[in-house]
Each structure stands twice: as structure tokens, then as C-alpha cells.
Amino acid sequence: MRKREEERVLNDRSEHAFLRLAITGMTCANCSGRIERVLGRKAGIYRANVNLASKRGLFEYDPTQITPEAIIAHIEKTGFGAILDDKAHQAVLQSAEAKATEKMRWELIISAILSAPMLLGMIAMMLGSEASWVHFVHLPWVQLLLTTPIQLGIGARFYRAGWASLRAKAPSMDLLVAMGTTSAYLYSFYNGFLGGDPTHLYFESSAVIITLILLGKYFEERAKNRTGEAIRSLMSLQAQTALRIDPSQTGQYYIEVPIDAVVEGDLLLVHPGKSIPVDGVVISGHSTVDESMLTGESLPVDKGEEDLLYSGTLNQSGALVMKALKREEESTLSKIIALVNEAQGSKAPIQQLADQISAIFVPAVILIALVTLLISRIVLGEWGDAIMHSVAVLVIACPCALGLATPTAIMVGTGVGARQGILIKNGEALERVAKCRTIVLDKTGTITAGTPEVKHFALNPDVFDPNLGASTDAGEKILKILVALESHSEHPLAKAIVSYGDQEVTRQQEAGQSAAGSNSDSLPIVENFQALVGAGLTGIIEGDTYFVGSPRLMAARNIDLTPLAPLIEQHESQGETVVLMSREDQLMALVAIADPVKESSAGAIAHLKARGIKVLMLTGDNQRTAEKIACEVGLNCDEIRAELKPEDKAAIISELQQSGERVAMVGDGMNDAPALALADIGIAMGTGTDIAMESSDVTIMNGDLSSLPKMITLSEGTMRKIRQNLFWAFIYNVIGIPFAALGFLSPILAGGAMAFSSVSVLLNSLSLNRLNLDRFRAHTPKKLKD
Predict the structure, then answer these.
(1) 543 CB contacts (<8 Å, ≥6 apart)?
(2) What's the rounded mean pLDDT across residues 752-759?
(3) Cα–Cα distance between 333 and 701 in angstroms, integer?
(4) Alpha carbons within 13 A on the beta-carbon side of 112
(5) Among 77-91, 333-347, 524-538, 546-560, which is the least confidently predicted range?
(6) Host domain of residue 144
(7) Which positions fall inside the HMA domain (predicted)?
(8) Same structural domain for residues 526 and 408?
(9) In a domain, 611, yes or no
């Protein structure tokens, strides 16, 4: 069982594996930094990345040198808890987090009740009150009784964490709080009970500081939980059970089974109002399905036979019988959750400066506090005020705000993106998006709908009777050979040809012209199939070698195109894509395919240009078709590059980068993968191939270009929040520490300011949820319509 659990969170690649852990007990940036430094020094660990905001860690390690159990043990020795961050432990994690928050709430309540009398008494005395209760709460033994449970009981968390940080040689904020409040507590104890001045008691400072810090921590924890709402909302969409149909029973007999028991090929019944349990295809029934969680689009999608269904989407109006295509852990929703989890646990490059400062922050503050103590004692001539100035320095310093500035904004930003169907892989990609000023678009499936249709099928008149078509024996044979070859390809044009072949067989059967079964049943066997990336494909059928591809491929093979040249020119001038088939060196057939432009493409390109972003279109299609499509979407002739191979696209990306441009590449096909991987930002359409999405930094699930302005706005907004957070965190410490050292802030005010600093950073990050991205709805500019 343990091995199966580890397999769900480990992704072995030769001698590299990845371990994802949920980490408990972290309170500030120094905590996450401490784990990274300690684990980073261990043999067999290549990389340790710990995120304070998400309370998660990702560890890259060599499984031949160190085990997951050993990594967890090292974390526990550092003073923190760790548990596998996988589905099996989600309930345990959520329960532990809820208990920790509830415990903190009760500690805060008790601390507030005990410290309130001392705080009110101090305020009343400052206002000149002579009431008996005021004098009572100022008695040393009363203040000792009220403060001790707070200092040594509730405040014990700071001692434990502070001591652990010292042992790890990475002092934390908890150490500062422990030192500051202990100084006030012990000095007050000395004055009250060991012969000092009983009028100089600072018990209330110790108690109120701990209370205020707990208050800040409680609100901080609540705000942190809100930053993870995107993941929780996605996880809530996962069905826990499914209705599995038993085909061996008469009628539609079904049983309810756990979602983990569903395997590929199972028939499932989905009632209206229920979530689709796994990815699959409709076998029977008709309904509308809400796919907004996947694409960000609010309008439901009609679903009928052979339509794809995605896990987590909501069946609305009718019952559906579906066939499972994937297990639950391999489903689209599971991949989205894993992707968002990874993004929210990642770091942006801009965080490096904050991490470097946090590493030396606490020792520097302790040194400043000691200097403040000595100088104040010399200048003021007595220890009481000097100690209070030093305590104020210790408690006002806050590395937490620095540590939370970047990860909280990334968590919220990637969550907002996920709700819009924009999946950003990591914080580095989120940062780079805002810097890209050139966007390169593939044509097929990116600017166009990616749902091409065959408009014309013709045979070579020099080989066949020019009046023959697909309905004749010769035409049917050629079409089946063509479909057999294309059925091995994932390219959208190949799918269009296969679909056309199926439709022709159906039409012929209905007309009584063909006795053959379904197209797939009678297709010839293809041997030695090979995809000629960016050009076409080839394969051997019954000993003959066939090539399928563009006119450019045929010309390169010195195949005579003259017999079909008029048709080639006619269809290309109409913006259609021409696919040719040859047997050996003989041209056999032509297929003309039209792929309509997406309604959103022109509007999205207009938005990008209005932002001053350079837009280019790259395509492997012919120049005439490229120019026709470019004209429809508002691109000029100098903004397109046609008849390109995959390596040509990658070369253009490289050329743009060498000229100093930051380039984003948008594509959806296998032939886009090299350019996607090379670009500063690779953006894959979710409607495309798996290899394109694996090569990309961003996936747009709805495949709509109107998501590009949304993505850029989200990236710019997130980076703006990060810069604001870092600015205020730096300014807060730069101003606050000198003010405290000079005696302008009491320890109580310093503690309150420290608590507020972290909460303010979190609230500023959460304001990203108010970004108005819906203003980028698809539209076609009036000029283009005219």
C-alpha cells in the first residue's frame, strides 16, 4: 500500500524522482528557507523548493541515494511535520489544518481574555484613572498570574520554533518574538519580585505582543486558506462514485462503485445534475454539459453520441451513457489539479531577492536590537526604557511579509487563471508572460477553429476517369487507402479526412452503393508508417509506398502536379488547404480542406496590437492560404510566414530572441512542439495534442485566442501585486525598525504593526480575485467586419 501511495506522488526519470509533501509548523519565510537549506545539503537531494503560502514542498532527489521516508525524517528533525501530498492523504491534511486553525483560535481567545485587563488598566492609568480595579490589575502578582499562561503556555510555540531554528542555524521570526517577550517578562519579574523598581512592570507588553501576533497569525492563516480556494474548488468537482452499467444484465442494470474502481472501457450512467466522473465518450443520450470549470466559458455545450466528456464537468439536462476512456487519476481534471498545485508551489525569479534578504534578516535584527539596548542604556541612563526599545525592535521586525509577498500573489494569480481556463505551469512562467512583447501564432487550430472539413475530393484525371469520384470503386479504394494512412496521425487535417471517409461510407451504404462494412472495418493495413513532421506522412500498403502531404512535399519528390494544378490553384486562392496523395512517384488524388477562422481570433489580435504587442502568424500551409487567413484576422502580409517546417518555426523564434525580443509562441500541434519549447513562453491550446501541451508553459483549455489578453492582464496584475507586496514589506521594515530603536514605538504598537504587515500583504494578494478579465470577450473589430 505504501509503495502504491508513493507511486502517485513520484515521477521517476532515470535517477531523478520528485516527492511532494505537505509541511506543517512553518511560520515565516525563514522556516521555508531553513528546510530548503538543510535538505539541500543532504546527499541525494538535487533540489528543495518549499512554499510558505501553500505549505507544500517539492523535492527532487536520487532514489538510489535517499528514500522519501528519509526526506520526511530530515524535515521532522528540522522541527516541522511532513506528510505525502497526494489524494489518499487529502482528508488527513484538511483535518489537520482545520484542527490547527481551531486550536489557534482558542489560544487567541484565551490570550485576549487574559491580556485585556492589563491593557485596559494601562490605558486607564494613562488617562489618569484612580479606580480601584486599575490599581488591582497593576499589582505584580496579578499581572504575573495573567501573563504567565500566555508567556509560557500559549507562547510556548515561539520557544519551540525558535529553538528549532537555532539548532538548524537558521534563526526565525519565532526566535525574535521569544527573545522580545521573554526580555519584557523577565525584566518585569525582576522589578516586581527580586528587588527592582515595582513601578516599572512590562508584563502587559509581553502578553499583548503575543496576543497581537497570534491575532495576525490567525488572520494570516485564514487569508492563506483563501489563496488556496482554487485548488479546493477544483477538488470539490471530483466525483466520489460512479454508476457502472453491467452489460451482462438485461435492461440498464447499474451499480454504484467508488471512482477509483472505474477503468478504461467501463460503461457509466450519468444522471442530470451529476458530475461527469471520468473522461469518456457519449455512447447514447443527449444533454447539455457545463464545462465552465474547464474552459471558463459559461454557456453549456450540447453533447450527443461520440462527443467527448471531461471529468468534473456538470451534466445538466439529460441522462447520458458514456464509455470511460481514462481512469480517474489520468483524467483531465486530475491533470489540471496537479498542474495548478505545481504552479502554486513554485517560485518566481523575483522572489530570489526576498529569499536572500530573509536568510540574513533575523541575525541582523538581533544585532540591531543589542546595539539599541546598549546605546539606549548609555543615552537614557536606565535599563527599563533601553530594554523596551530593544524589545520593540525585536517584535516589529517581520520577515514574514517578505516571505509571503511573492507566493501568495502567485497562488491567487494561478487560481484566477485556472477559473478562466488558463493553466500556468509555474511562477516563473507567470512572471515571463508579462515581459513578452512578441506573440507568434500558429494557424491551424490556433487562429482557425481546428475543425477542418473536406470540401472537395478529386482523382488524378491522367490516371483515372476525370468524372470519377469517391462513390466509384476506384474512388472508394483510393479514399480508403488515404483514410488508412491518415488514421495514424493526430493532425487536425488527418482527422478531417478520416471523418470524410466515414461519412462517404455511410452515404454509400444508405444509397445501396457499397456492401462493405464500416470504413474502419475494411481499411487496408498500413506498414512502416512515418510522420514527416511539417510535410505529411508516408506508409506502405500492399507493397506500394504512398505519400500524403502538401504540394511542396510532392514537388520535392519530383512528382508531376500538372494534372491537378488548376484545382490546386483554385482551392488555395479560396484559403483552403490542399492535401495530395501519391503512390510511388505517381500523383493519385487531391483533397481540399477548409478550416474556418475562430470568431474570437480577429478581436484577440486587435486587443494584442492595441497593447503594442507584435503579432506574427507562422504556418506550414501555402502562402495563398496564409494570406487569405491573415486578411480575415487583421494581419498584414509582413506579419505572416508560410510554408514552414517545424525547424523553420523554431529558427524564426530563435531569430526573434537573438534580436532582443521576448517571444511567446501559441500552437496546438505536434509540429509546434519545438517552437513551443524554444520560446520564452510556450502557450498550448487545450484542444491540441498532448505533446504540444507538455512542451508548453501555459495551456489555454478553451482553445480561444481571447484568453491571450486575459493571460497577459493576469500576469501583469500578479507581478504588480508582487512588486507592491515587496515594496511595502521592505518599507515597513526599513521605517519600522529605526522608529522602534529610537523609542517612537512601544513594544505593543510594534507587535500590532508586525501582525498587520503580514495580513496586509495577504489581503493585497487576494485583491487579484477582483481582476476584471471578462472585458476581453471575443469580438470582431468593426473595421474588419467592413
Answers:
(1) none
(2) 76
(3) 11
(4) 12
(5) 333-347
(6) 95-230+342-413+721-770
(7) 17-83
(8) no
(9) yes
